[in-house]
Amino acid sequence: MIRNLAIRNFKAFRNQSFELAPITLLCGLNGSGKSSLLQALLLLRQSFDEGLLERGRVALNGELVHLGRFEDALFESAEEEKITIELKSASGEDHIWILAFDSKHDRVGALQPGTSPIDPMLPLFGERFRFLGAERIGPRTHYTVPDFEPASSGLGVQGEWTPHYLYLNGERNISIDGCAHPAARSLQLKHQVEAWMGEISPGIQLHFDQERSADLVKLSYSFVARRDRSSQYRPTNVGFGVSYTLPVVTAILSAQPDDLLLLESPEAHVHPHGQARLGELLSRAAAAGVQAIVETHSDHIMNGIRVAVHQNLLTPQQVRVHYFRWNPEDTTGATVVQQIQMDANGRIEEWPIGFFDEMDRSLDILLSPKGR
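^ that's the sequence the OP posted. Answer follows.
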């Protein structure tokens, strides 16, 4: 598990350190640097996947992240043209990568003296690393299968291989009993996914059929109400929320302790109750040893985690919430990051201005006398 991440001279960060926990939420305004934290990790992982990192090289563009040129990745007001990414593991070991480029127009750089050797025990480079981006694949009549065993995720960066993954692995039991939904028919992954997806779309059931001649998987949904089951529907006739959430739920339920899971906007196209339940599911996985780093704009995701703390599903020490914002007085453009403290009841000890407070702002206006 990664306990601390320090980033220098990368995109919005001049010199920023982050405490990480089993579950870490990245919250704040658009363009404030939340995704940049994930991209720092993805930059290392994709360079590792491509066999570059062990040869002292890093690639800004690849399957996991596309950063452009060095000038796009370098902090605009950097005093030296080097990017540094430093991790501290749960065992207390430090790992550091110092990146330099010959030109600001370069897309491939070199690791500098002082860089740590690759530690295969670090979860960032493990076989159970997964990343799901915000731009996930929407409803399709058919879904592709990977040409080879993917290095970074059996689900695909956009979740495009999720139906194929469930087709192959749906009958396996989930690894974390604490994530088991009480309404599921069994501990099998497919049944657990159906039960948790039922929090978003009640009564949903999944059906798969592989078309081997075309290397495609057909996915359809039916719905059960009491003892009645509907016909099977194509994903294109069900809605974006189901398709966008299926990879997220599958990623969490198929995770094992010590896995590293990076998620962008897991709440996309999901109603508030479903978002809160995703927060609970993330909490249950984190309590069992999965490390999840989640970029989100959802106060419902956060509140699901707060409720999990209140109900003793996990401790506040197992949660970190980072609030990203701009400092208008800082002419360098560096992002300011504030760590939000949570107590044992799941309550926020100090609620900063601009941090999920839009409901209160709107209520203040609605409860005030109407102007004439």
